Amino acid sequence: LSATWAARREAQRRLADARARQADLERERERLQWQIAELDKLSPQPDEWAVLNAEHARLSHGQAILDAARLALDAVSEADTNAESLTSRAIDALDEVAGVESRLANALDVLREAQAQLQDAAHSLNGVLNHTELDPDRLNELDQRLSAWMSLSRRHRRQADELPALLQGWKAELAELDAATDLAALERSAEQAHAAWLKVAQAVSRQRKQAAPKLAAAVTAAMQELGMAGGRFEVALSALDEPQSVGLESIEFLVAGHPGSTPRPLGKVASGGELSRLALAIAVTASQQAGASQVATLIFDEIDSGVGGAVADTVGRLMQKLGQRVGPAGEGRQVLAVTHLAQVAACAHHHLLVSKSMQGRQTTSDIREVSGEGRVLEVARMLGGTLTDTSRAHAQAMLATAQEPT
Fold this sequence. Notes:
By secondary structure, the chain is of the alpha+beta class. It is built from 15 helices and seven strands. The strands form three sheets. A three-stranded antiparallel β-sheet has the order 1-2-3. A two-stranded parallel ribbon has the order 4-5. A two-stranded antiparallel sheet has the order 6-7.
């Protein structure tokens, strides 16, 4: 129920926001459409800026590249007096005397390596001369496209190589705005979310109507054993004028503390002790329902107010039962009770003694666990104040009986 309510509320919020911001959203949408159309004409592609600049650099320097390569090739291998022919003459001269002068061997090796490198250089230069073209038309195309890139980058205050990502970002924003300004789609979404919530809420209402009399009867029965004999507990379901997170109806607990009295809202007629005992009755009843969620911690204060004897025994036993391990994994529930009754304290799995003391002008509170003989003495004190052999024996018997399985 809470999940479908949250989805319903979110769908209605989006619809209300869209209606309130319709004019602003439409202006933003038109602005994005214009900007996208402008960039779409350029159609900038990732990495295109770098590729265009590299090609432009080659074409714009084409004649200079050809002139330099021709001059270098002439000097290396094609002029009448070139480096390759001069190196060859030097090698031939040294070859004639290398056999009688070993000191020339190193110079001869270096010249032969130089000859090989000159031949490689000549091959590379020929490749540049054969594959470098002068294309003024293509260069003009590149000038125009690069100019368009620069113009748009200045207009939108972005680096030129950021234009492709900028275009994709705008398209994503436009898609979101299209969805946000599609009132018909938002209305359908809100209607569907409401229908989903209503289906769950109606199912919950049926379950509440079935469970309310059962809970009322069970709690009423428990009240008879908790010092509220003749009392009555009711669950009132009232249809709400407007849907709320709790469903289609409000729920109110009503209680009549005495026979013949009219049930009234729980918080207005019950005392603190009665509220605690009613909470105990509700907790016990809920814990007995199959599939009921288990509350991890329950705290009861003044639960023993105005009761004693058998009622106090019943209160203690019920809280003891609530504090037993529950669930398929053996997870525990913690029940804390503030009590002055020995019958209630004896049923606890652990006994914590709260005391106050004065240290100078300051009052301090102390909490410590009592067990074994210390617990026997504390229960005996709760029974009558003055410790006697009889009260100790009574306390020991009470603890033994209270810890027996029921």
